[in-house]
Write a structure and sequence with these properties.
The protein has twelve helices and 13 strands. By secondary structure, the chain is an alpha/beta fold. The protein has two domains: 131 residues, ATPase, nucleotide binding domain (Nucleotidyltransferase, domain 5), CATH 3.30.420; 170 residues, Nucleotidyltransferase, domain 5, CATH 3.30.420.40. The strands form three sheets. The chain has a five-stranded mixed β-sheet, sandwiched between helices. A five-stranded mixed β-sheet has the order 11-10-9-12-13, sandwiched between helices. Strands 5-6-7 form a three-stranded antiparallel β-sheet.
Length: 318
């Protein structure tokens, strides 16, 4: 049986895994992402790391069906190129596939990192066994990937920009230039922005308000923890968050009718309280047949979603 390599390329680390064709992780390791000099060392370092590990484990390129990789930025899945991955300092077009195939002698496939995480959750995580899964990742921004009828949806290239669903046309400005995108209220930064704004008008007792007024560090985790302790201001903030995310999920489901909407990323660490809150609004706004059949679940693979999903690109392409 041949093996697979999955790579999750991020702004601070590159994660690697060797997996079986069934998606079972056998080895894992990571290296730092060297973004100096327009990120020109990133691909050579990936090649060097793979070749070093194969030597270490007594493996050769013939033992592998292929390498899959998730990358930030605008990925051309046919040509295997990336442009505009600013957290990697990749401003120019990068010929990734060409370099990695030449350096490792193993077939190479790639896609956008959020798409790849969606594939991971669909193959081995919360969406396991379903061909219709939407993955929403709540981190620094809000990303997403859509698997419909077994296929990743790309559209003309930017499909699955879930963070830019409009949830409040009178809301905050987004980094994309629009106003009221989901990312402005449901990302880690967005939740904090909501808390600061609501806090200004809030007059009651609240530890969260004291922290904000005092200039202490307030994070999404602090806000959800305070809501758990029934801090009244924190409860108002997370309720607003549930409304926005539940509304967005209902819009997604009304268009796609997925089996599962999987929520992952740092903010999802709030856990089951988040799922209950979001599901409440989802059921309020989704089409009747859809609200009865589409489930909202927490992601299950954590940091491994990227490498597992990347490896599945190989399987899907063969």
């Amino acid at each position: 049986m041949k093996k697979l390599i999955g790579i999750d390329l991020g702004g601070t680390t590159v994660k690697f895994a060797i997996l079986t064709e069934e998606g079972e992780v056998q080895q894992k390791w990571s290296i730092e992402t060297d973004i100096q000099n327009d990120g020109k060392y990133i691909i050579p370092n990936i090649i060097k790391s793979i070749n070093h590990r194969l030597e270490l484990y007594g493996l050769s390129s013939d033992d592998f069906l292929g390498i899959g990789m998730g990358s930030p930025g605008n990925v051309d899945v046919i040509k295997g190129t990336v442009i505009g991955a600013y957290n990697l300092n990749w401003h120019e077009l990068q010929h990734v596939k060409e370099q990695i195939e030449e350096g490792t002698r193993v077939p190479f496939f790639m896609d956008n990192d959020a798409n790849v995480a969606a594939l991971g959750e669909q193959w081995k995580g919360a969406g396991e066994g379903s061909n219709n899964v939407v993955f929403v990742t709540l981190g620094t921004g809000v990303g997403g990937g859509i698997v419909a009828e077994g296929n990743l949806i790309h559209g003309l290239g930017a499909a699955g920009e879930i963070g830019h669903i409009n949830v409040d046309p009178t809301g905050y400005e987004c980094t994309c230039g629009n106003v009221g995108c989901l990312e402005t209220v449901a990302s880690a930064k967005g939740v904090v922005q909501l808390a600061r704004d609501i806090s200004e008008k809030y007059a009651g007792d609240s530890i969260l308000k004291v922290m904000i007024d005092d200039g202490q560090e307030v994070t999404a985790k602090v806000i959800f923890d305070q809501a758990r302790f029934e801090d009244p201001l924190a409860e108002i903030v997370v309720e607003k968050f549930y409304f926005y995310l539940g509304l967005a999920c209902s819009n997604i489901a009304n268009v796609l009718h997925p089996d599962t909407i999987v929520i992952g990323g740092g903010v999802s660490a709030a856990g089951e309280m988040l799922i209950h809150g979001v599901t409440r609004y989802f059921k309020k706004y989704a089409f009747p047949q859809i609200k009865e059949s589409t489930k909202i679940k927490l992601a299950e693979l954590g940091n491994d979603a990227g490498v597992i999903g990347a490896a599945s690109l190989v399987v899907n392409n063969f």
